[in-house]
Write a structure and sequence with these properties.
heterodimer, A: PX Domain, Substrate Binding Domain Of Dnak, Chain:A, Domain 2, 3-stranded antiparallel β-sheet, B: alpha+beta, 4-stranded antiparallel β-sheet, 4 strands
Chain lengths: ~525, ~400
Amino acid sequence: MAAEREPPPLGDAKPTDFEELEDGEDLFTSTVSTLESSPSSPEPASLPAEDVSTNSNGPRPAEVVLDDDREDLFAEATEEVSLDSPEREPILSSEPSPAVTPVTPTTLIAPRIESKSMSAPVIFDRSREEIDEEANGDVFDIEIGVSDPEKVGDGMNAYMAYRVTTKTSLSMFSKSEFSVKRRFSDFLGLHSKLASKYLHVGYIVPPAPEKSIVGMTKVKVGKEDSSSTEFVEKRRAALERYLQRTVKHPTLLQDPDLRQFLESSELPRAVNTQALSGAGILRMVNKAADAVNKMTIKMNESDAWFEEKQQQFENLDQQLRKLHASVEALVCHRKELSANTAAFAKSAAMLGNSEDHTALSRALSQLAEVEEKIDQLHQEQAFADFYMFSELLSDYIRLIAAVKGVFDHRMKCWQKWEDAQITLLKKRETEAKMMVANKPDKIQQAKNEIREEIEEWEAKVQQGERDFEQISKTIRKEVGRFEKERVKDFKTVIIKYLESLVQTQQQLIKYWEAFLPEAKAIA
Amino acid sequence: MEGRQEAGKESKPSSLSVDLQGDSSLQVEISDAVSERDKVKFTVQTKSCLPHFAQTEFSVVRQHEEFIWLHDAYVENEEYAGLIIPPAPPRPDFEASREKLQKLGEGDSSITREEFAKMKQELEAEYLAIFKKTVAMHEVFLQRLAAHPTLRRDHNFFVFLEYGQDLSVRGKNRKELLGGFLRNIVKSADEALITSMSGLKEVDDFFEHERTFLLEYHSRIRDACLRADRVMHSHKCLADDYIPISAALNSLGTQEVNQLKTSFLKLAELFERLRKLEGRVASDEDLKLSDMLRYYMRDSQAAKDLLYRRLRALADYENANKALDKARTRNREVRTAESHQQLCCQRFERLSDSAKQELMDFKSRRVSSFRKNLIELAELELKHAKASTLLLRNTLVALKGEP
């Protein structure tokens, strides 16, 4: 396998650069894209040195064989999107894009990388800037907003349309600011496509917000009460966060489906996302099958890093769930406090009205006013509790599920490799047996067949090993990126949340300071 | 569960403090209290230079039922019909608290040891708070009696304060409780009857006003008290919610390997401190607002009772007048009717005079108590809000300062 890793035939200075690239961040993609003719290559960042082995420029025939295998691997991808869909064409025809994508054929083409590598230094310099920018917290210069929920249609066929606005200076987009209207199933469709392309090769694809039949039905039926407005707002915020996370991912940002989602005014309806559709049921069945498979795969983990990380994520998941449950209780009680404070304010006002001592009566009315304002305060704080703290936690609980999924895919990949090795062994045994047995004429054909099969399976074993190594590498990078994002995310939100708490306390101080002289004025 | 309290040595919930008119000739306080399985034993200490008492300083042990006996004795005493009888202290009720402690003890395996310890601490503090409150209420009852120029001279009061033995007053049995309940119904029916009686005119504007006022006031203050209780309860729940949050943040922090470690641990500490602050806000609201409202709800009921008695006396007076007229027309038993009418008139006027005074006292007592408590409430809320702000700001600085 080492042969595939011979350094690309570049100039002399380059190899060291590439060493650094390996350790650096995934910054290149945006710049890379500007250099390429086709905008659609979903390649991982550290392209040149590492991915030489899996180059996409292989001839078609090799690909065909693998398609079937891929179907198994893609158990997750239950959408009827064929591997040879038009969107994929550009990827195949593009220049040296050694992409680790579904369409990657096995043929090794080391030299093809030259044209790419020539431009590498340029990328590298620019990427330096971006490394610094990243370190300062500046991400990818693209901002997504989801706003203006609008009800379209009537009755059970009604749906909410959201405006998705993109502001960017990235040149892969045709404009710097644009917006489109999308509905919830469009978002689900996007996620479905991205998941089917990237999950099984180790990319952590951010999960889309969850469906809610109850919530949506209320909206459809036209209940204009606070619970349905709250539901819509919750969903809007969740969709925004979802998109923001997705575009932050350097590989996903390159994806044509994502681009289409953000840019094109008309989007084909994603029908396979309906809960009770055929595809939906197929998804459920596959999920169940996955769960069973997970239990039966016993992998010989040669890399302690993976075991450690898996344990870590498992623990993190448990802890986040516990915290989330407690925060939900907090939100609930704060809402109760708000309601009770409002009720008390009213009765204090009534009491003030009854009171026949004038100054005391005034003071009680003032108390009632203070309590009313405090009730508002509690309500706002409850919103902050929820939208900042609680939703962050639930987002990460689902993200970690995606991470766990990626680890599972690696296991499946390993299983496939393992199975290929076992089959190869069996074929070899059969061949050996044939060699020993002495029936020349009939056997010749069988021998040829077996020979062919052995060659085929040898190739599969090789591919299996390559795939496994590739996915392991991708996961390592992805986990590194994920953890960085997580730290940033949490820190930002925690600070914002604490600031909201400070705000509340300061308002309380203001209100009580205004009330104190009133109380003292009671004569 | 046992609890002791050195009531004299620490500050009691002061919402119920009574303006003792600097008259030190009779000072009463509850110097100690012990909570046993299902009863509380109060040590009532009296300091007095009044000649009536055998010693200048002495104490007895009393239970709740004996306080009730004393209260009822006052209520049933015709002499005090024109006075507002201080409301009886409520029965010590540790049931809810005890149940919660028991449930905690039965154990919920999902909580950590620290969480358990904190929750236990909270419940114990709650138990203690209830205990202190019940002591305070019993004490205020006695102190008001001791401060009232007429009520303090009651014979039963002396017995209560001085008699070393058990007063052999058992708690009301079911029949008596039922009897009391029925009496209340009869009373309100009677009141309704009286007021609808034709010819019964309220001659005094003052009382007319007081009646309408007290009726409305009492029902509204009862409402306010209930709702204040709910606010306090929500606040307590909120504070309690911080316990599992802090614990979860702690576990997160200890498990993290990256920079979030310190963030989580600091946040855990923050929530722990916030919990204590929120708890104090809740208990201050309880003392300064809820308890005060509750006390004046009871006091206003006592004032209403006074008005009822006066009204009853007025009705009797009216009836006596009518009887006298009838007797005069028939010219029979005029003397008896006359003297009866005289008595009724005197009684009515006596009641009216003292009631007027009592009601004015009630008003000034109420106003000054509200004033004191509202000021203290505002000051405490400010104190806690400022402390919270400081705490939050410090944490923010620490978090932002990290790489």
